[in-house]
From TrEMBL:
UniProtKB keywords: Electron transport, Heme, Iron, Membrane, Metal-binding, Respiratory chain, Transmembrane, Transmembrane helix, Transport
Biased composition (Basic and acidic residues): 541-553
Biological source species: Caenispirillum salinarum AK4
Alphabetical list of PROSITE patterns matching this protein: COX1, COX1_CUB
Membrane topology: Multi-pass membrane protein
Localisation: Membrane
PANTHER family from the UniProt entry: CYTOCHROME C OXIDASE SUBUNIT 1
Domain Cytochrome oxidase subunit I profile: 17-525
Record-annotated membrane-spanning stretches: 34-54, 74-104, 116-137, 157-180, 200-229, 249-273, 285-306, 312-331, 351-376, 388-410, 422-443, 463-487
Name of the protein described by the UniProt record: Cytochrome c oxidase polypeptide I
Amino acid sequence: MSTIAADAKRPSYLTASLTLWSWLSTTDHKRIGMLYLISITVLFAVGGLAATWIRVELITPGGDVMSADGYNKAFTIHGVIMVWFFLVPSIPTVLGNFVLPLMIGAKDVAFPRLNLASWYIFMAAAIMALYFMLVGGVDTGWTFYTPYSSMFSNTHVTGVIAAVFIVGFSSIATGVNFIVTVHKMRAPGMTWFRMPIMVWNLYATALVMVLATPVLAISLFLVAVERLFGIGIFDPTLGGDPLLFQHLFWFYSHPAVYIMILPGMGVTTEIIACFARRRIFGYKFVAFSAIAIAVIGFGVWGHHMFVAGQSVVAAVVFSFMSFLIAVPSAIKVYAWTATLYKGEILIRTPLLYALSFILLFVLGGITGLILASLALDVHVTDTYFVIAHFHFIMVGASVSAYLGGIHFWWPKMTGRLYPEGPALVAALMVGIGFVLTFMPQFWAGYLGMPRRYHEYPEEFQIFNVLSSGGAVILAIGYALPLVYLLWSLKYGERAGENPWGATGLEWSVPSPPPEDNFDRTPIVDDEAYSYRPYAPQVAQRDPESPEHHGGPR
């Protein structure tokens, strides 16, 4: 792969203009990615504080800290913030925005102004949601199940629904931008089967964003209409059908699982190929499996409704589809394992997060097959087994991939290296803390502990004590990166353009990249992941030295 890097003496996107207005009015995809990074980090902290409050309450069987109503509001804050304002947008908007144009040799996304508008829409929706949840609260949970949400709850349901409705436009805008960028702005020679797997996965994610999000939007709009005007859409006393909402909601929300997990699979692929020093095993199968997951994901929503009253025939079909979607997921896991086999493994922080992603994704996936089995699902529905499964996939795997990607591309994003020792400690704490937090919930759920209750029988206390203890370790593990990554901005060693010795166009430009990425359009003439023996560029303390802008191709 050959390319002409941008002139090393030109200002980077970080130093081009340091005024606040230059950032708030920017159309540079890299700066927009950093804006998302800052806002999403703040929202993650808010959602994490709500989770901490929940775990404090659940240490003891009695309702010692919160009332039932307060507990409902606390887990709704946690769910709404974490799902709609962190897990869904995190990797696409932060890492996707930053690396996608660089990976395909483009100077920006297809619609830079739309990209900036998507961040403003996101921020407006986030502020709106926080206002309503902190002022009066919402007690419906993040799923807004009807008819309670549409007719009976006396909390700020309409305001929060409006916020989630608005943030959907941000997702659609990002998805459209990514699709057009991949189709129209690839560098000469960057064929579909020379694209990095990360690009394939972001493309598949964008398809789901564009096709599924409008269904969620209209579902929430109908809830607001019924709530405001008393029109019988979901309320059975008015001639409505509450199951209709569940069908519409999960038609989006299960594909939304793959909005959260597909980009993480792309991050994991990039990291494993780099630190195993090998071309990804079964490249075409891995690429097509991303599209297969996106497509099949639209046909599994009914497994959330096995006990809701749907027909037996429909339940069997949805069960089969839920098992079927495990096939392309298993292809990816097999490919990662085969790539690592006999690889020239270099243990670094991003690889630890990638391995954590694989472990947690496999455990979450296996327990997902239990929930896809009709008889077993009846037993564990609405118990902590479902909570544990959901968190293993959506939090454990997704956040591990997110942190792995942040660490992998941090030298490129900032031009600085973080301290490896504290980073390794944080990665281990996240993995250990997560397993200790959520593994006991599988046992508690299997034994019958229901979710969404702030009081529970005493025999379940040991599981909750273990979960709350693990949550302390997990919280420290999540907080540590914020400390040492901020420290690295001033004190970290300067990173050359390719500190990992990775392949890919993003590693051929200076760190941090110039405003317009490339001074001339690169020409791609190699396959993806054409790794040679490991020879990483040594970080240079002098940014003006010629070696600072060299590095392996």
